[in-house]
From TrEMBL:
Organism: Aquimarina amphilecti
Domain of life: Bacteria
Protein name: Peptide deformylase
Cofactors: Fe(2+)
One Pfam family matching this protein: Pep_deformylase
Residues noted as binding Fe cation in the record, renumbered to the chain: 105, 147, 151
Cofactor remark from the record: Binds 1 Fe(2+) ion.
Keywords annotated in UniProt: Hydrolase, Iron, Metal-binding, Protein biosynthesis
Phylogenetic placement of the source organism: Bacteria, Pseudomonadati, Bacteroidota, Flavobacteriia, Flavobacteriales
């Protein structure tokens, strides 16, 4: 089932999410719906707060980046079939040089900006079967994870922009929160007038 994606301006996107346990109701159904919602919106990641749930859960599928000719063959191989669920994730460390990449977000349609992030992360998380992992990721795989991880920490990619950039996109962000935007997927707008 496709779930509407919560738009910029909804308080759930600014909350630090809570951990869940394996008894979380209908978890496998929720994950199925989240993947379906993400694919429907042509996203490479989706966090539970983006569908209105303040829980520490996100999923990624970075396969679309595997076709990027600018990436090394090694990095393209990593991204092929890179489809994962992260529950109760904690980034243990971020290392390496900061590098810029243009990011967007399903909750903030039509806004894309360069964001600087460290190139390597070490992360501890549980998968959909509550098997625990501690793994290291680098490059675009790390970036996709960092972006979604920020969502469960109540941080949006626009929070990482310079104050000048923030001022330049302020009007766009206000319009998104009011529903004055066209996205080709279902969205839920916090400030939209009822009956729209």
């Amino acid at each position: 089932m496709i779930i509407p994606i919560v738009a910029y301006g909804d308080p759930v996107l600014k909350k630090k999410a809570k951990e869940i346990n394996k008894e979380y109701p209908k978890l496998s159904e929720l994950l199925e719906n989240m993947f379906e919602t993400m694919y429907n919106a042509h996203g490479v990641g989706l966090a539970a707060p983006q569908i209105g749930l303040p829980i520490r859960l996100f999923l990624v599928d970075a396969e679309p980046f595997a076709d990027d000719e600018e990436l090394s063959e090694e990095e393209r191989e990593v991204l092929k079939g890179f489809r994962k669920v992260f529950i109760n994730a904690r980034i243990i460390e971020e290392t390496g040089e900061e590098w810029a990449f243009t990011e967007g977000c399903l909750s903030i349609p039509e806004v894309r900006e360069d964001v600087f992030r460290k190139e390597t992360i070490k992360i501890n998380y549980f998968d959909e079967n509550f098997v625990e992992y501690t793994e290291t990721y680098t490059g675009l795989a790390a970036r996709v994870i960092q972006h979604e991880y920020d969502h469960i920490e109540g941080v949006l990619f626009t929070d990482k922009l310079s104050s000048l950039k923030k001022r330049l996109i302020k009007g766009k962000l206000t319009n998104i929160s009011k529903g004055k935007i066209s996205a080709d997927y279902r969205m839920k707008f916090p400030l939209a007038k009822k009956g729209r």
